[in-house]
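2024-03-11 09:14:02 INFO receiving multi-entity request
2024-03-11 09:14:02 INFO entity count = two
2024-03-11 09:14:03 INFO echoing inputs for audit
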Amino acid sequence: MPGLLTGSGDSSSLVPFSPELHTPAVYPLHHGLKPPITPRLSISWSSGNSLRVSVFRSPETTNTIEDEAEVGGKVVELKLSGEDVHSEVNDAVRWRRIVYGSVSPFAHLQNKKNAMAALSELQHSAPSQLEWSKYVLEYSKEINSLLGNRKSRPTSLIEDPKTVLKIDEEPSSLKAAWELLEIFYANKQSQSWIPEQLVDWLTDYDSLFSGQVPTVHLRLVEFQAQLINIQTVENEAAYWQAISSALSVGWLDIVVKLLRLHGSYQLNQLGSRETENGLVEAVAVLISKMPRMRVDLPDGKLGECCYNKSDFMKAWEKWRAQITKLDCSAYWLQCSHHQTKENLKNLLQIMLGNINTLTNATCHWVELYIAHFLYIRPFTSGLESMHVLAQKCIQLKPISTPHKLMSLIIGILGENTEVILAECSKSFGPWMIAHATELLTAGNIQAEILLKEERHNLGGISIEESHRLVYAQVLSSHALTWQIAPVYLISCMKHGVGLLEILLYKQPVYHSQVLLKNIEICRLYELDSVSANAMKIVGMHHWKHGRKGSGIFWLQQARDEVRLNRIAQKLFDFVGKSISDESFEQWEGLIELMGTESRTVGGLEFLHKYRDFKKSLQQVQDGVATDAARKAGESLISIMKNPSTPQRFWLPLLYDSLKLLTWQEGPLLNVSQCNLLLNKLQESTVAKLRPDFVEVGLPPHALSSVRAALATNLGRAILEE
Amino acid sequence: MSTETLKQFHRLPQSTYIDALRFLPPLSAFDRYVVIASFNSDTDETSIGIHALNPTDAPTLTLQSSFPTSSRISSLKVAQKSLQNPLIAASTFAGSLHILFPNPIDASFESEVSIPEKTLHIGPISCVDLQENGSACVSVGEDGRVNLISVSDSGLDYRRVFDSKGLVSYTAARWASPTEFATGGLGNSLQWWDQRRPGGPVSQFKGNWAEGASSGVVHSIDIHPSRKHTCLAGGSYGSVFAWDLRRQQQPIILSGIGTNDTASNICISSSDVWEVQYDTFMSSSNRATANISSDRVLPVMMCSEDGILAVVKQGEEPTEILAENCAINSFDIDPQNPSDVICSLEWESVAILTRA
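2024-03-11 09:21:47 INFO inference complete, emitting structure
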């Protein structure tokens, strides 16, 4: 059970749980009742996060209350809104969009998983890892696209040379975290390009760290703000700092753009600063020719792609040789601008991978880490060596309270699934963890065992299931997302169906739309008994509120014979008076609704039979055909024989059919039938003495005339036989 | 099943749940407006809004004006008197009825008249329908009442046509002519009413349904102005059927489980069909072969709980237009431009599509 996860509290707890209790908040309740009120409140959960509080009035004072409406008390619904765990996606609408969008990729992947498992069972072979990782990647990309798009704004034709950094919409750290997981777990094909993928990742998300630590991004943003007021950039330390920082994290396009702002490019200065300009341009060219170990580069990004390692090695050596050559060049002596000379040499040191220069140029350890991949150890591969490198970077750039994304990176590099789960759960909430487990387990047997092993301390369920259950609980608490919860619950082997049933039982089914949704979900997951119960609840609700037709309809759908029989008794009381006269017609619609005899109608079957009998009697009255009369007689017998015919209707029925009993052309009933009717008549007269007898409202001579008619018929029948 | 090619398809996420939507008859020559009844689950606010739809490659809905209602909308209809302004009728789950008059110049709500809760019906109003010219409105409810509301310049006036006192519940209603209308209810039943013959339905339909189909509920009815003898209905278990008044008790099944004859069954969906409308659109391909004889049911568009928007034709394979991951709760075909369809999706969004 999800509750046990945090409740355990001992060392085995997976997610850090802070036992500190918030001080209870006190809210006044506006119930609008006049005192005195009993000190008793009834509190129950309504749908979602609503709390239903029933406030009662003191019973002894109720009789003196003038206002009738206030007698019992009042029910107040409270909507609770806790603090939002998804601090990033606090916008509920945006959050729901992610929730909606992730349903289909998740369900799709689960279907694929089940299909593959079934297939491998059939073929007695292990499911293909390659194929599976393809599906996982597809899934990951779909989810990723939901979390927001890196919108490149339409670039204007005349680009402002002073806009170095395009500041787009703030990216979400949820997306950043998802992309990290995708890089390390889902994208198996490009495992060897992880360093370059991380470079791209930092390009997109460095700004996220700005809130907590200084970043290169922040440095550039600040510099850009100053840029408009600066006349000669090369005299400013901030200019060179921005360049070296951007270079250290590999934002080559920005570096080149900034270098071209150098004063020596201005036409009036070219003559006097020719050598200086040559050096700036040489560095810019070298930067733009940096070999990159990757397949391709997005538009506008600089560098030369090398697909395989040997090509890259050659290009890398050549490039470094060119840098060294430039570093040793004699032109530096001719460069009169001191700052330009020093800082360009500094840039060359960055490119040559001077650890001190890199440490100075970067702001936090992740940036330094990326700089390592770019300039010192481009071939770093394998999580272990990457982890060692990360530790080294953290030592060089220690941080007091690590950013949540930093903790996630360390967790991933440390190959500690439990830490990753804990970080995901703590920082990104149940949605993230419910969806990310698919990435973590893809092709990672250890993680799979960890996540799918049934745990005693979790009530016999796996970690994976517990997280899905938690997420399903979150979904269940909202009126618009509860119908999504079944998709996740049904993927939980142990407790999913049980919780789904509870969820469905909790819905306010007396709203017809909720009922129909409930029935639909039950149909999809074959929960017939749950939907039958919902129909029973609705049936009784309608019945109690005077909608007899709907009540009977839903009880019929639920095949609830017991309730239908009980309802029938009530209904007959209601029918009672009208049975013999013409107002019976108002029941026509209801009888139509009850449908054919094959359906479950319980005691109500009588109404149907009675209507048919009445119709045949009608035909007899219209004409004098003996055939019709004989049929009517037969249906009289069958209706009298039927156990569902209430005793109180026996006499009225017989009285209605007096004409049949005294049929001119000859007796319609034989001796045994006559005896049966006489017995019934006798029984019904005896019943008069019973306390629960209901007067039907027949003329006083009814009994004697029926008795006489029956006797006549019997006599004639004996003669005939 | 074939799928229809779409010239354009856009999903427009909204920040509210869409309870119902309709194209508004054009207020002026260039504008296109959509009426949307929405429900904000975070604030519990409900409203009816007029949105301008700009028909570009990337359509957008821009809210022009909004009218707050006290409860969620159960049914929304629009009508237009000839050469006059359109009017909007909306019923709520609380039981009130609102008639709104949009201003043709700025698409604001010029005036509103309403009948409060607990007057027309006890409990929710299931469905309302406006006459073509907007002069009268019929309302039905689970309480078994059928009311006629006359809409005039002086206000609203209502009259109870029938009260089954809860013995029969009604879930759908649709006008057939100025004097006749049809209603639908539980058990896939339909009733035909004629104001000239008061006192109850003049005809009842309770087809020879096979086991199962008779347990359905009618959710929507449509009647084509040129074929007033045929009543089209959609309801539970994916059923879309037509009731020809001339052939009393035999339904014409267009989709879903129906009679015992399972061989010819077409079943495009097995969930609730939320809305049916006659499809007036003739694509260039089917215009050539359009020889719909008078005894065949006209093409029908339907939307369903399992996310299907499709056109079904009698005796033909249905054409699927959309297959969404969530329910399509309602749709409307633009009467001026029948290739355009707008639908409301369960996951707080609106889909706009243009058929080729």
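2024-03-11 09:21:48 INFO post-check: DSSP finds 33 helices and five strands in chain A.
2024-03-11 09:21:48 INFO post-check: The first strand of chain A starts at residue 37 and ends at 45.
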